[in-house]
Design a protein that fits this description.
The protein is built from one helix and twelve strands. By secondary structure, it is mainly beta. A hairpin with a 2-residue loop joins strand 1 and strand 2. The longest helix has 9 residues. It is globular.
Length: 158
């Protein structure tokens, strides 16, 4: 067993829209490409309905409550609970009312982490949260910017 004492770029803070993303374990830290990203989301924050083609999404809720829809099934998860969204199934989540939510997102292959890095602003850009990025045509910053292994297939969860 090899212990990774120090990971390159671990702990980098990024604004991904209104979410503060902290790369806890980059995919480059190990041979299997697993990354762990901490996500701090405001109340009401939601992802678009999307499908991961490269692997499962594992979301562990550290604080707060989140509502999920995975392959048409609706349910909630609270602090201490973990949700697995299997590869190829459409899924979406939304932060429930309250103070916001903090979760760990575990993925394999590095695509999610690369997307976060490419589409984010460093926290040094200032402000309490990142900008809600919308193009001149009114599209969200997710439109047309996703890697081929993550497909947006629907609207956020309302």
């Amino acid at each position: 067993m090899t212990v990774q004492k120090e990971a390159v770029d671990a702990g980098q803070n990024l604004w991904f829209g209104e979410n503060l993303m902290i790369i806890r374990v980059p995919a480059s830290a190990g041979s299997d490409g697993i990354s762990i990203v901490e996500c701090r989301m405001p109340r009401g924050g939601s992802t678009p309905l999307h499908v991961e083609l490269s692997g499962d999404d594992i979301i562990h809720v550290l604080e707060g409550a989140m509502r999920f829809r995975v392959d048409g099934e609706h349910f909630s998860a609270h602090s201490g609970q973990t949700v697995v969204s299997p590869k190829g199934l459409p899924h979406v989540f939304r932060v429930e009312p309250g103070e916001g939510s903090i979760c760990l997102i575990v993925t394999q292959g590095g695509e999610f982490e690369r997307m976060v890095r490419e589409m984010s602003l460093p926290t040094s850009a200032g402000g309490q949260h990142g900008p809600t990025r919308v193009t001149e045509t009114g599209e969200s910053f997710f439109d047309g910017s996703m890697p081929a292994t993550i497909q947006v297939v629907g609207a956020p969860l309302l």
